Here is the input.
Amino acid sequence: MAEENKVEILKKVRETGGNVKGACTRAIFEYLRITLEEKKIKEIKEKLKFYGYSLDPEKISPVRMYPLDFELAILFAIQEVLGWQEKEIKELGRNVPKLSFIVKFFIRYLVNLELGYKSSPVYWRSHFDIGKVETPEFNLKDKYLVLILKNFDLHPIYCVFLTGYFETMAKFILNREKVECFEEECTFKGFPYHKFIIQWD
Amino acid sequence: MVSNNNKEELLSQISELQESLDSLVTYIQDLNDFLATPFCYVNALWVIINANKAFFNFFEYSEIEIIGKDLGTIFLDRSVIELIQRMNLAKEKTFELETKVITKTGKIIEVNILAKAREDLEKNIIGYFLTFTDITQFKNIQEELEKEVEARTKEINDSRIALLNILEDSETARLQAEEERNKTLAIINNLADGLLMFNSDEKLTLLNPQAEKILDIKSKDVIGKTIAELKNYPSLEKIIQAVGEDLRSVSRREIQINNDLIIEISVISVALKEKKLGNLIILHDITREKIVERMKTEFVSISAHQLRTPLSAIKWSLKMLLDGDLGKISLEQKEFIEKAYASNERMIKLINDLLNVTRIEEGRYLFSLSYENIANIIKEQYQTFKELAEKKGLKMELIFKQDKFPLVKVDKEKISLVIQNLIENAIHYTQKGKITITLESKDREIIFSVEDTGIGIPKDQQERVFSRFFRAENAILSETEGTGLGLFISKNIIEAHGGRIWFESEEGKGTTFYFTLPIKEELGEFLRTF
Here is the structure.
């Protein structure tokens, strides 16, 4: 994807509005700090500036809300600088909940999968002021659940990011080694909402 | 409807709240980073949700590696989790346990876990705080201590067993000692001699049945009493007088307890490895021996007296024959009569000696004591034997070391007999050389000696020289005559005068006999009679 397109997309998202808690952004950069050299982080920050974001992502508050396009810009910058594809972005998504203080603070009250599942709309709302999560199906017998995300058309890469994120969240309240999350339906593929399936062994 | 003012105020409050939250989050994160004790939070499903830096360092996992993992990942034994659950069921909100954990690199560490359950508002357990304290060093010390305790316990047990063995041995030894003691007591009780044992405090500790019989006292009446207390018993009085209250060493002293009892007492010091245990008085009943001895002495005395008269008659008859008072006799007859005369003389001497001995033994060897000039007595004897010595080719010398000698109180006849015996012996047992008679006065004593260059007395026979009828082997070979009573009589005479008699001799070189007589002031002695 050309750089101009990304800037355009970011502009469009910004215009659509929507904010996300800084906790996620902070966790992304903590992950980068763990896995990358300083030089690469600097480059990513430079790329962010190129996209028009002068805010230092490592200095933002984990409890305040920030424009969604800023978080998307970070993913774009990472892809640009590091050449990461969906696999790496999903891995990033898997690690963010582990590093987010707010996530961990929230998750400690979820004592089982069903409760966690039912709490996911609340959880979403506490992190995003845009989009809506619905919990249409929880199948303990066949070991899967369905999450529906509506009114959240950010970018397909963010959907990938979310599959990793949901996977770890499910692991927290499942205590299973093998948990998998994939997006069965996506608004960017012509569906009316995003449909995430989480299944476990 | 919220007014603009209220909205601004609300936003302002939210902002303040967010700032506070920011501070709180930073504070908690800083605290987590700062805390040196590894801790983690696990949810109700045992998933590690949160942990501090010390935890990551301790278990060697990065945050992304361990967060989200099952708690069992760090335990060597998953049963620990079950234990925590059981604790939870037992409503123990905070509890400690010791277990082993495993780090990412496989290091096994012994830890003390402090666990605290967290509850939601409905009191449901929603997770646990767990802190981990490395107790490896403590455990090592504990193990070492336990080993030490085990070793010490073993040592104590070994010592106890050894002690029991010693006690067992001691008991065996005690029984043996008791058996030995009983044997000894049996010997003591059946001993023909009486025994009195005094301890180091001079208290009577033992009195055997024979001693009870001899002394006519009962053991129970006297045991434990001191010598001073025992003086009050008539039968013991004489014994204590003889041995003194200090129980001085006494050897075979005769005591007549009464008309029917004569005992010989000896005192010996009893010691064990230089430690004095006390003194033992041995009472040996010699009454019967004394009776036999007296009868023998009486027999000898009567026999001697009965023999002396006919022997004297024979002597004078032979003398008359030799002197020609009964007619002239031939030379051959003279020789025979002279031999008979000499034999008779020897017989008379023997009888006289025997009589002297019996008198000594009967204790009636009475002295006719007077102050005499000892030098004159010696001179007389010297003159008597000088001719005999010269006839034998011996030189005889008389040395007076002082010009004048104090008078000594002696029985002249008996002292003369002693001097005579000693000079006569010297002449008889010396074939060549000389005989030196010396007299000196020294340290309130008169010292007389007769030195010869004769055959000497063999060393192994010297001890018996003053015994009755003893004659040294070389003396018998050299001189067939001799009764073996001269020195016995001499010794008794000298000792009866309060003097001493002894000799120095070397076989083949000669002998010197000495005797001493105490010098007593005539005036002092005279005054003492008052």
Q: What stands out?
A: Residues 136-190 of chain B form the longest helix (55 residues). The CA atoms of residues 231 and 241 of chain B lie 9 Å apart.
